[in-house]
Every structure is written in C-alpha cells, then in structure tokens.
C-alpha cells in the first residue's frame, strides 16, 4: 500500500542570517508532473553557507537545501517517479521548451527555477530540502538510487557530484592526460576521483592541510609547477585561475566552475590563447544526464573511495543552525536528517 500524503509537514524557514524557524506548512495537492518526497537526508552545500553568511543573495524567507535524497510519497499524473522509490533530484527545474532547453542548456532555461532557492511566500513554498517533505515540480529531473548506496553518498549527487560530471565532460577525454584540480573541497575531491577513474594523472592544490591529505588519500599528488593538459578550478579565486591558465601546455583546456560570485577580472593575453591553442570554458550547474551519471559513478566506485566518510553525522531539523556552518576537520559536508 502506498503511503498516504500528509496534510501538513514541518519545514525550517530561513529568516535571514543564520536564523531559521520550524513551521508547520500545508502540503499542496499535487498537479500534473509533480512529486512529493519525504526527505531522508540533506547535505549542506557551500552555496547555502554563502547564503546564510550574506555572500550570496537569495529569496528570504525561503526553505533552503538542494542537495538531498528522499523517498517518493506521492506522484501526480506524468511524474517521473513512482511512490516507494528512493531518489535524488536536480537543482534546476526547466521548461524544456525554450531555445536554451532545446539546445542542451536546460540549466540556463529562460524560466529556470531552483530547488532550495525559491521564496517561501511564492507559488512553491516547499522548494527546499531542509524540511520533512519537498514538492518537485514538473521539469525536475530525478534519478533512482541503488539500494546498496548509503544516503550520505547519494545526497551529494544532486549537486556536487553531478556538477563534477559536467566539468569532466567539458574537459574532454582524460585518459593519459595531466590534470590540475584547484580546490579540494567536495567538488574538488569528487573531480579528483572522477579524473583518476577516467585514466588521468591528477594533482591538486589547496591551502588546507587536511583537505590536501584527503586528496592524496584519494590518489592525487600535490601540485607542482609543471605543465598540465587540463585545469579545473573550484576555488573561485581569480589568482588561482590565472595560475592554472599559465600552466596549461599547448592545446590545454581550462574549466572554470568555482567562480560563482563577483571577483577580480582575469587578465588574459589573446596572443597566448592563439599561439598555445588554449580553450577556456565555464560550467555552472548541470544537465539531466549528469545527475544520472553521478549516481552511476558513485555506485560504481562505492568501495573504491570512502564517500560516506566525507559527510558528518546528521543533526535533526530542529538543530539546522548547527549544520549551517563550515564542516569539521576532514569532513566536507554537514548534514540534516529531517
């Protein structure tokens, strides 16, 4: 028997700063293509930390949280999921019909909406994962989670891992290539694993000793001054991007994925781009296929790398404020279990 959808649920409403309040919220009747999910575990992405610290603008009040895993409770007509499934879901919700969607850039849909980024007083109040339930609108991509995969491994697939899949695709074929990863946070460490898995030789640069230790445990080596074929930056630092660009060998590719806030201008010498035949590209969010690829990648490498050890033990929803902080040493994500 399918679970009966609740009439109300509990959500942590972000009120600005680090303040949240638990409120009872009505669960709406599902429309065509919509899905109701009971959140099992939500991991705290760095962008939410930027929001509560004031570094990133966001609607307020709202229900934050976009990196999560949960069980489908109910599904409207045409929903991509079925009751009883354990799933992860996309950050972006696209229309599927505009020119950007048709060209394969649905993450930049002209009418894009985002889970965990919508106003609570709008038409999608239960948009975030820091709640007992979340409503997924039509246009949300979902991916089923294999039974053997722990929640702590599955949840980051919805943002960090899927974004890495997009950056690795942008980097091109990697077998035998020399890859430099800038930043050893959740994305950088995941990219390290993905590039090693693709047959690359990987080096990582990060100023945090514990994160560098994790990167070496994953199989990377510390960065040196030699040339590289591919550089992927997750730091968001213009100085780090500039240094990576300078190290590219002829035909090199620079993928910038961490620069998601205003920063100093990057100085680029057009002659060097031409003579060294360089490519500079950016990646922001990901496409539906990348979410599915993320789940497959994590499942395939479940025992190769200790993914579950990168997420701290979850706190209850009532203690969300304690999770909205930088993770403890050697952890890359804090977590909430609503």
Task: Quickly describe the structure.
With 338 residues, the protein is of the alpha/beta class.
List the keywords.
single chain, 338 residues, alpha/beta, Quinone Oxidoreductase, Chain A, domain 1, Rossmann fold, 2 domains, 8-stranded mixed β-sheet, 10 helices, 16 strands
Number of discrete helical segments? 10
What is the distance, rounded to the nearest whole angstrom, between the alpha carbons of the first and last residues? 23 Å
Helix/sheet category: alpha/beta
What helical percentage do the residues reach? Answer: 10-25%
Query: What is the residue-mean pLDDT, rounded to a whole number?
Result: 95
EC number: 1.1.1.1
Organism: Mycobacterium adipatum
Domain Alcohol dehydrogenase-like N-terminal: 31-142
Cofactor: Zn(2+)
Notes on the protein architecture:
- Keywords: Metal-binding, NAD, Oxidoreductase, Zinc.
- It comes from Mycobacterium adipatum.
- Belongs to the zinc-containing alcohol dehydrogenase family.
- Its cofactor is Zn(2+).
- This is alcohol dehydrogenase.
- With 338 residues, the protein is of the alpha/beta class.
- It has 2 domains: 8-148 and 302-337, Quinone Oxidoreductase, Chain A, domain 1 (Alpha-Beta Complex); 162-282, Rossmann fold.
- It has 10 helices and 16 strands.
- It has helices at 46-52, 99-102, 151-154, 160-171, 186-197, 209-218, 238-246, 270-275, 288-300, 320-323, and strands spanning 8-16, 19-26, 35-43, 67-75, 86-93, 113-114, 133-136, 140-144, 178-182, 201-205, 221-222, 228-233, 248-256, 279-282, 315-316, 335-337.
- Strands 3, 4, 5, 6, 7, 8, 15 and 16 form an 8-stranded mixed β-sheet that branches. Strands 11-10-9-12-13-14 form a 6-stranded parallel β-sheet, with helices on both faces.
- Helix 6 links the parallel strand 10 (201-205) and strand 11.
- It is globular.
